[in-house]
Each structure stands twice: as structure tokens, then as C-alpha cells.
């Protein structure tokens, strides 16, 4: 039986073979082509990372010697750690590091002004920044489409919430939301009966796109209710707010780009990319959790790689987590491999520790990672 190829398929196969033949066994990164279809949320070429320059095995962690009831998310900012909890009258708890002295309970549930419909994450759809001597957080309220500024230092000093509404007419229910500048935002929203999750820029109330975002926006699944999670992401912005990082929970690659097009990289950790069309045919329990968390720092970003089958994640996990560290050009720096299971993390850079939290067991731990800085 003869196999027939289209011209595009022949070009793709030729390019892939040429690249594969040019690879040296010890290369850390190689580039390959990818078909430009709705099956992939990628740019034109893929940077495949098959080895990290440094590898660190991290010892088992030690329990944090404080009980934080209802903890589900946390973020480290300078010498503070802010935890998101399910406590309705103290959604965020603030502690100092490394002693964990409690500095206050803030934010509350409710339908009134400056209240929240549910506990906001401290790591997603929020921007922590310095304003003079204060640390503030700009929090996107998911159900109301509001942007609320929370002043941590003033709240600690007063012993009560110091809140200010910054915006009240943003689109609600956004899947991803980043603050690019004054009245300038990046957003990702569901469309076409949730079969697409499209990216836009919002500037002074006007939505727009560009060729770079359009390239990623071509991705689509056939059934939004069943397969929407295949495209789910956690999106971050670099500290300089000039680069965007998109991590996908269910895919074995991620995207790093600048909106002006000066940088656009799809970075894969396996040579065969996850194909949305093929993944749709995989029963839900047999789908992979690829990534679980991502954190950004001045000189690098880090992703939590789980690579766990959903059925094992819900019963008995088999794959120990890895933190994969890259510089802001997308080059691999280091891989940290752990002996404990966890689903989120953050580095305490000042004290050379990494804190981890496991949503399955509620275990909150810290690990010494001095060797990472050596």
C-alpha cells in the first residue's frame, strides 16, 4: 500500500529528518518543526530540552511547625509568606520568615464592596509589587471583574484590611489575567462554547490581538465541557513585565514570549508533543497531569513537573515531582528532584529554602536547597 503525503507533510518530514540528523548526542536543546494546526498551542518551531546542565537531588522536607487551617495556596514576598485559606474572615494569613510569626488575617468573603466571592489565590491572577516602602497586591476578583489593591504593610500596621478598588469594569470569569501596565492587561477567556481559550490585550477598555497571540489562539478542542481542561494554563509575567510565560497543566510543553515578537519560544520536555486531538480520545483517568505550578523570579522561572496519570494522582502517586528551572531566554539551568510529593512550591531565596504544599495530604514542608546556589 502506498502512503500519500501532502506537500506540507513532506516539507515537515524533511525538516524534521534534517534536524534529527544534525543532532549531537550530548546536546542539551534541539529545535524541530511542528505542524501549524489547531491540535497544538505552539509557535512555528519547538525547542526540545532533553538534558539540564545541573541536577540536584533534594532530601525529604521538614514539616512547617505551624498549623494553617484551610491552607490551599501560598506565596513568598521578600521576608513575608502570604497564605490563601478557606477561613471566611481571614482568607489571607500573613507570616514572617523564617520564624512564622503571625502578622495578621485579612480579606473576607461577601457580596459587599471590597469583599470576595471566594478565597483569591495568592499566586494566580494577582500581582505583588513594591510601592515606596510598602508591598501591595493587585487582586483580580474573578466573579465581579474588579481589580482590588491590597496594601500588606498598611494592613499589618492597622490590624485590618487596607483595600482600594482600582477597576470595576473588567471582564469577569477570565481564565488568565496579567497586568501589563496602567489600564493595560493581558487576558485569556473561553469562547466558542468553551472549545477555545483565546488571548487578548485590553488597553483603555479596548480589546485587541496581534499575530503572535493569533498563532496560539488557533488551538481548539472539539467538546468544551469534556476537554476544556486540556488547554488550561497558569500564566505569569516576568518581573520586568516584558515576557509572558504560559504553563499548561495537561501538555508536555510551555510557551515563553514577548508581545512585540522579539522572543517566542515553545519549549518541550519530550520530543513528541502532546496532540490535543489525540488527547481528546484518551479516557479521563488515563490523561496526564504534566505541570502543577510555576513561579517567577528576577533571574529565572521554575515549573513544577508532576507527569502523573490522573488515576494515580487520585489514588497512589508514582512519579516524584521535579522543579525545572530556566532563565528568561528559555535556556535550561537546573533540575531539582524531590523525595516528597507536593503540588505547589515557592523559593525563599533569602534563606535558601524551598517551601512545598501538597493539596492531597495538606502537608506543608520546607526543604534545604543550599546546593542550588553553589
Describe the structure.
Residues 1-20 form the signal peptide. This is TolB-like 6-blade propeller-like. Keywords: Signal. Helices cover 11% and strands 41% of the residues. It is mostly beta strands and 374 residues long. The chain has a single domain (38-368), classed as Neuraminidase. The longest helix has 15 residues, at 7-21. It is globular and about 55 Å long. The model is unreliable at 1-26 (pLDDT under 50).
Q: Report the count of strand segments.
A: 27
Percent strand equals 35-45%
CATH class: Mainly Beta
Radius of gyration, in Å, reads: 21 Å
Helix fraction? 10-25%
Mean pLDDT: 90
In CATH terms, the superfamily is TolB, C-terminal domain
Number of domains: 1
The name CATH uses for the topology is Neuraminidase
Largest sheet: 6 strands, mixed
Number of helices: 6
Report the CATH architecture. 6 Propeller
Structural class by sheet pairing and helices: mainly beta
Uncertain residue ranges: 1-26
Give the strand order of the largest sheet, numbering strands 1, 2, ... along the chain. Answer: 1-2-20-19-18-17
Organism: Algoriphagus faecimaris
Signal peptide: 1-20
Keywords: Signal
Protein name: TolB-like 6-blade propeller-like
Task: Tell me briefly what this model is.
The protein has 374 residues and is mainly beta. 11% of the residues lie in helices and 41% in strands.
Topology:
Blueprint: H1 7-21, E1 29-33, E2 45-49, E3 54-57, E4 62-63, E5 73-77, E6 80-84, E7 92-96, E8 102-106, E9 126-131, E10 134-141, E11 146-151, H2 152-158, E12 163-167, E13 176-181, E14 184-191, E15 196-203, E16 206-208, H3 211-217, H4 224-227, E17 233-237, E18 244-248, E19 253-257, E20 264-268, H5 276-280, E21 288-296, E22 301-309, H6 310-313, E23 322-326, E24 332-337, E25 344-348, E26 353-358, E27 363-368
Parallel strand pairs: 2-20, 3-24
Antiparallel strand pairs: 1-2, 4-27, 5-6, 6-7, 7-8, 9-10, 10-11, 11-12, 13-14, 14-15, 15-16, 17-18, 18-19, 19-20, 21-22, 22-23, 23-24, 25-26, 26-27
Amino acid at each position: 500500500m502506498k502512503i500519500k503525503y501532502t506537500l506540507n507533510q513532506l516539507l515537515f518530514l524533511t525538516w524534521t529528518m534534517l534536524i534529527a540528523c544534525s543532532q549531537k548526542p550530548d546536546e542539551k536543546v534541539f529545535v524541530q518543526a511542528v505542524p501549524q494546526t489547531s491540535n497544538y498551542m505552539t509557535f512555528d518551531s519547538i525547542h526540545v530540552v532533553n538534558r539540564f546542565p545541573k541536577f540536584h537531588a533534594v532530601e525529604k522536607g521538614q514539616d512547617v511547625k505551624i498549623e494553617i487551617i484551610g491552607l490551599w495556596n501560598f506565596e513568598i514576598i521578600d521576608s513575608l509568606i502570604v497564605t490563601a485559606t478557606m477561613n471566611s474572615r481571614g482568607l489571607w494569613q500573613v507570616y514572617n520568615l523564617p520564624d512564622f510569626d503571625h502578622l495578621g488575617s485579612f480579606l473576607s468573603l461577601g457580596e459587599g464592596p471590597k469583599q470576595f466571592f471566594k478565597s483569591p489565590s495568592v499566586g494566580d491572577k494577582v500581582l505583588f509589587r513594591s510601592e515606596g516602602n510598602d508591598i501591595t497586591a493587585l487582586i483580580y476578583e474573578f466573579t465581579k471583574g474588579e481589580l482590588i489593591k491590597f496594601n500588606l504593610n498598611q494592613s499589618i500596621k492597622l490590624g485590618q484590611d487596607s483595600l482600594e478598588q482600582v477597576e470595576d469594569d473588567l471582564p469577569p470569569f477570565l481564565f488568565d489575567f496579567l497586568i501589563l501596565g496602567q489600564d493595560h492587561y493581558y487576558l485569556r477567556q473561553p469562547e466558542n462554547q468553551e472549545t477555545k481559550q483565546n488571548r487578548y490585550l485590553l488597553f483603555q477598555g479596548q480589546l485587541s490581538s496581534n499575530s503572535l497571540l493569533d498563532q496560539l489562539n488557533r488551538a481548539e478542542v472539539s467538546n468544551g465541557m469534556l476537554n476544556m481542561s486540556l488547554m488550561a494554563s497558569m500564566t505569569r509575567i516576568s518581573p520586568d513585565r516584558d515576557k509572558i510565560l504560559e504553563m499548561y497543566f495537561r501538555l508536555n510543553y510551555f510557551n515563553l514570549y514577548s508581545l512585540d515578537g522579539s522572543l517566542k519560544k515553545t519549549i518541550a520536555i519530550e520530543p513528541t508533543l502532546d496532540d490535543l486531538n489525540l488527547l481528546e480520545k484518551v479516557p479521563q483517568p488515563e490523561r496526564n497531569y504534566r505541570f502543577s505550578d510555576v513561579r517567577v523570579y528576577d533571574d529565572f522561572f521554575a515549573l513544577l513537573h508532576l507527569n502523573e496519570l490522573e488515576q494515580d494522582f487520585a489514588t497512589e502517586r508514582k512519579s516524584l515531582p521535579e522543579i525545572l528551572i530556566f532563565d528568561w531566554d528559555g535556556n535550561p539551568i537546573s533540575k531539582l528532584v524531590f523525595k516528597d510529593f507536593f503540588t505547589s512550591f515557592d523559593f525563599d531565596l533569602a534563606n535558601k529554602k524551598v517551601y512545598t504544599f501538597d493539596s492531597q495530604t495538606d502537608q506543608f514542608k520546607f526543604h534545604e536547597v543550599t546546593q542550588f546556589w553553589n
